[in-house]
Amino acid sequence: MKNYDIVIIGGGPAGLAAAISARESKIESILILERDRELGGILNQCIHNGFGLHTFQEELTGPEYADRFICQVEEKNIAYKLNTIVLDITSEKVITAMNREEGLFQTQAKAVILAMGCRERPRGALNIPGYRPAGIYSAGTAQRLVNMEGCLPGREVVILGSGDIGLIMARRLTLEGAKVQAVAELMPYSGGLKRNIVQCLNDYDIPLKLSHTVIDIQGKKRVEGVTLAAVDAQGKPIPGTEEHYACDTLLLSVGLIPENELSRGMGVELNSVTSGPKVDESLETSLEGVFACGNVLHVHDLVDFVSAESAAAGRNAAAYVKGELPGRASVKKLFLRHGEGVRYTVPETICPERMDEELTVRFRVSRVYQSCYISAYFDHERIRHKKRQIMAPGEMEDIKLTKEELLKYPDRKQITIMIEEG
Fold first, then answer.
1. Number of helices (H), then strands (E), in the chain
2. Assuming Cys at both sites, which of 2, 290, 355, 367 could form a disulfide with 281, CB separation 3.0 to 4.6 Å?
3. Domains and CATH numbers, the chain
């Protein structure tokens, strides 16, 4: 069994940023385990631009953004294994994995960073009636087929769900000659970024039908058409609003789920809202020495935020290995609660003595808000009140807390983040 200071599960943008940060924190023994044939993760199939504006102050494609981190990994001689499936991780941080070259092998780590990313929600989770014909794809699968395999999945397309991948694929398929007839969204608001609605739908005259869903799929061997219907406030189809679309392809862009089977198997506590691990200010999970970052923790909208968060996880894992991170049992813990309008917060607990001088708390709102405030309360005393013109569930929000102000309130037990309307 080989021993490493830090083993990182996943070689996508989160795992790469965490590895580089750990190496810059003077950790020499690092291993990345990646199940795909190359590093970079989902970025390899995201050939559109819009990446790197926060990290590099320039606009890059997904592969270009990934390449900058891959080059750093190579330059810093960080070890990695490709085509390697992690089968199990114990609470003692023993990793069991398998690949063609080594077969089944085990690795002992002093610290583990979970960076497995997320997966798409499948049709089976939607309860759509109809047969199981060919021509139904998740948006990410269609993206890989078009951008990496050179295969156009269909000519006449309807997209269910307005997540960012679905919006981007509406534009991509249009550019490849397909006809995207409509994008249907169950909620009364889009699940994607505003810029993607403008650049991917409005610019190509693709209709976005909010408060609509697919109620039937026609065709046995291949999709022949779908039926859309408007839904009420409870998400139930409204009789008499049905619309038929003849098409040969249905793309599903109905949400992402963090890949946390390994996390659950090793005993990490998971958040019921995000489906990701519960973490503290250091991005450490309920298991000591196990950290989480990126989309395995909570689904991000921008990869730049993934990189920033993962770099923090790498620094904190390095501090843990070097014995520089105080034990949680020896320091005071503040509970971070989500109040009105806030679905969740990352992190969920804060130990002020362990945190950096400034901590970014990330969250998503539960609905569309206009002319409102993000507020933070220490027990019942408000310490933050930030004006926002508009907020939507599709875009991540944040609020910053400083170590100095947290230490001023040693008797407080709880911080509440909430939305207050003007």
1. 8, 27
2. 355
3. 1-119+256-325 (3.50.50.60), 122-254 (3.50.50.60), 328-422 (2.60.40)
